[in-house]
Prior knowledge:
- By secondary structure, the chain is mostly helical.
- The chain has two domains: 1-39; 40-242, Orthogonal Bundle (Penicillin binding protein transpeptidase fold).
- The chain is built from twelve helices and two strands.
- Strands 1-2 form a two-stranded parallel sheet.
- Helix 5 packs across helix 12.
- The model has no long low-confidence stretch (mean pLDDT 86).
Amino acid sequence: MESQPAKALVPRLIQSVKRNKIKTVFAVVALWFGLEIITLPFGEIERFKTSNPMETAFMREHEQRAKEDGKPFRKQQRWIPLARISKETVNAVIVAEDGMFWAHSGFDWFEFRESLERNLKEGRAARGASTITQQLVKNLFLSSSKNPLRKLKEWILTWRMEKVLSKPRILELYLNVIEWGRGIYGIEAASQYYFQKSASQLTRAESAKLAAIIPSPRKHRANSESRYVTRRSQLILGRMAARGL
């Protein structure tokens, strides 16, 4: 049988909540936020020092969307060590996606400020500022949604990843898991699909074309001569030359 003190506690608790509605809301939000943070996959980041991810959050999201649309989902992915990927490809991707990759600690604050200023000026998301590490975090653990909590999780996990993993390892993971076309994940699968060769054999021009489609891998094909791919790949080649790469 429930004791008298316990019975009296419930009404007092209800009255306390009614009298302190704002404090109660803040307490609930703080508790929920704390649970969201402590359940972040910090352990998985540690494991990625020596093991490779079998799938990513983006892969699961793409598979779920395909099922909802009644379409088949076929994943193509072949893991390749960073040391075997063409240096031209590595340079092209860094120049295209994160020019300060080797220098920053996960966040490029100059690009962030420039992006914010341009987006505010144009009133839309005209320019992104995500680093390679941030993109990797989103691919591995999060989703394509843009809600504030997801962004906060991204920042926390990006900070942790830069503390735990080396730059070469982050780059190796990134090049092996990002999407390069519908169901095509990783540079080796992309190289085989578009150019029928290993990523170790990619030329400078082919590397630039692959780097060019990273922002919109389902809209553009690396082996096409479309205006977008041609223009963006030439821009990437120009940046590489300017850097002496």
